[in-house]
Amino acid sequence: MDELTSAARAADIAARDSYGRLLALLAASTGDLTAAEDALADAFERALRTWPSQGVPRNPDAWLLTVGRNRLRDQWKSAHVQRTVSVEADPVHVDDLDLDAIPDRRLELMLVCAHPAIDHAVRTPLMLNTVLGFTAEQIGRAFSMPASTMATRLVRAKKRIKTTRIPFRIPDRADLDPRMTAILEAVYGAYVIDRATNSEALHLAEVLATVAPTDPEAHGLAALVQLSAARAPARIDGNGCFVPLADHDPARWNRQLIDRAHEHLRAAHAQRRLGRFQLEAAIQAVHCARREGPTDWPTLLTLHRLLHKIAPSLGSGVALAAVTAEVDGPAAGLAALDVLLAEAGEPAHRFQPAGATRAHLLDRLDRRAEAMAAYEDAIALTHDDAERQYLQKRAAAL
């Protein structure tokens, strides 16, 4: 392996495993999350520039932390910063951390972003942006919100951390339970945004279930992500086109992930406290049971109704309409969907699954002109190339 490849690989590992931890340490002195992000980005840039010629340092994390802090100190020397920012004289050092407190460094910063002083509505977007690296545009799509609105909220949240001096310390396990709901929502958000691979959500959900073994929703989320990831090999055909779940070849599903998901579901059930993620996982488990027989649509309808009752959302409503169509016919499903869209108003028109489902139901009802228009709307909202190709094929078939 040459020096350039070795340096790039070391930087990639540091970004994947230590970014959240390093960012939390850099922000701990001033609570300025934006400045810490800029300093850490500068540190990674310098690493890619100098490591190939000087060699990868023995402790890459400490090197990145030192460079980031030097960048921040350069900023602190300015007259304006000296007048407006209080800097800790002795900031936490990387070697002083209890590395076993939380087994994934990204969870440390997620716990900071879930601080009670931060508006709960922005905690999940803040974690997705700051810790997991999703853009305001990606997060906005997941929340059916314009990217500009989401970007404004993220900037405002980061400014609040700075101006109100929210304690920006490395949390420990004692902070986990009261902040678990927000963290689960963020991991779920990562699952929704990156459904094609689920790599980050898959890992983080398993870590959360490990550090919180008596939290049924942590097990439910782990099961949900694993059941979804298990079907990933069957989602794309040989031509790179999206394959809907009903047309999957169950033989291509990952049996090991499905079995592990059922272990999480059993662990969740043992706690006797039902929640949203457990219901979503149960729904996915019923779909995965198609390996042994036909899909149990009546059971799915019952589960979707219960999910939409305890955790109503645009997504759960669209899914309920789609399953209603399988049990009671496409006309009933379309009627339920149109009621949902009318009640949701403007955000529903940016929600791609709603447009795709409506096009499919109109297609089944042989309302071709309306179906064509609905397909065109759904295609315009689709950002995944494989799914766009599938929708275009369906529209062309009309």
Summarize the structure.
This protein is mainly alpha-helical. It has helices at residues 3-27, 33-54, 60-76, 79-84, 105-113, 120-130, 136-142, 147-163, 176-193, 199-211, 216-230, 255-269, 276-288, 297-310, 314-328, 330-344, 352-364, 368-381, 385-397. Helix content is 68%, strand content 0%.
General description of the model:
With 398 residues, the protein is mainly alpha-helical. It folds into four domains: 1-90; 106-172; 194-292, no CATH class; 296-398, Tetratricopeptide repeat domain (Serine Threonine Protein Phosphatase 5, Tetratricopeptide repeat), CATH 1.25.40. Helix content is 68%, strand content 0%. The chain has 19 helices and no strands. Helix 1 packs antiparallel against helix 2 and helix 15 (314-328) packs parallel to helix 17. The longest helix is centred in the first third of the chain and has 25 residues, at 3-27. It starts with a helix and ends with a helix. Residues 85-101 have low confidence and may be disordered.
